């Protein structure tokens, strides 16, 4: 058996293109990345707007970051499924017999997952103004929004990749991602933390999505950031490093 080569960049590019081709051959993947974000923001921005009170904010302005995270959770289930399929159907064994960098396979899946997440983000940011979202950010704020969204997409794609590497089936991988579907609703994404019941509010204040959502909301609405951006960046870096390290360790053991 040949060892994995160190041609990480060309190999990662090839693996990335492979994952994109797989996505293009599965129309439901693209539909999930585009239609679900559209219908989520349409639902929350119209149906729930009339029954929700978020203080001085328009509800659509308040919930856009939460919708982004909910769509991220939907989009990245395919990353977990694809990684699990590769791990359980013999594809990885074939790569191990070739001169392929051991990092390239997971990097390729991560890149494709980030691409799907970015598509979801674009759909939301393009649809929100139609429903009344008021973008008040300046140029620097938008640069920070783009950088933060990129980091968030990378972070949660790596979480999905980790679920794919440790799961014994593609279906099991999506089950491991279930908490990601719940966390946006137990954060500041759809309601202020101080309006929640005490236990849920305490959990919302310490979970990683809340500072990320607060940072996106502050940047897009030109509000004070306080310490939310630093917390968001810290969470992104820590989760990314841990998930990638554990994914590689699991990948090498299987």
What attributes does this structure have?
254 residues, mainly alpha, elongated, disordered N terminus, transport, transmembrane
In the predicted model, the low-confidence regions spanning at least 5 consecutive residues are 1-5
Please tell me how large the radius of gyration is: 19 Å
For the biggest sheet, the summary is: none
Helix content: over 70%
Mean pLDDT over all positions: 86
Contiguous helical run count: 12
**Total domain units:** 1
The best one-word shape is elongated
Beta-strand segment tally: 0
Query: Which percent range describes the beta-strand content?
Result: under 5%
The span between the termini is 15 Å
Query: What is the H/E order?
Result: HHHHHHHHHHHH
Structural class by SSE content: mainly alpha
């Amino acid at each position: 058996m040949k060892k994995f080569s160190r041609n990480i960049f060309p190999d990662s590019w090839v693996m990335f293109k492979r994952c994109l081709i797989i996505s293009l051959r599965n129309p439901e993947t693209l539909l999930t990345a585009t239609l679900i974000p559209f219908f989520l923001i349409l639902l929350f921005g119209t149906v729930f707007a009339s029954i929700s009170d978020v203080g001085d904010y328009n509800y659509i302005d308040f919930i856009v970051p939460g919708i982004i995270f909910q769509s991220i959770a939907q989009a990245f289930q395919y990353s977990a499924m694809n990684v699990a399929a590769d791990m359980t159907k013999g594809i990885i064994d074939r790569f191990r017999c070739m001169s392929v960098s051991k990092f390239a396979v997971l990097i390729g899946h991560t890149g494709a997952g980030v691409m799907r997440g970015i598509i979801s983000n674009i759909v939301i940011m393009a649809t929100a103004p139609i429903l009344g979202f008021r973008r008040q950010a300046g140029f620097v704020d938008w640069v920070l929004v783009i950088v933060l969204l990129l980091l968030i997409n990378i972070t949660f794609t790596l979480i999905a990749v980790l679920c794919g590497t440790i799961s014994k089936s593609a279906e099991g991988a999506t089950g491991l991602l279930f908490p990601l579907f719940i966390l946006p609703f137990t954060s500041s994404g759809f309601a202020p933390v101080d309006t929640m019941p005490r236990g849920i509010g305490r959990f919302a204040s310490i979970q990683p999505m809340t500072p990320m959502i607060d940072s996106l909301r502050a940047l897009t609405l030109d509000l004070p950031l306080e310490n939310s951006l630093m917390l968001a960046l810290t969470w992104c870096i820590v989760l990314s490093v841990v998930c990638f390290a554990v994914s590689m360790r699991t990948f090498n053991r299987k």
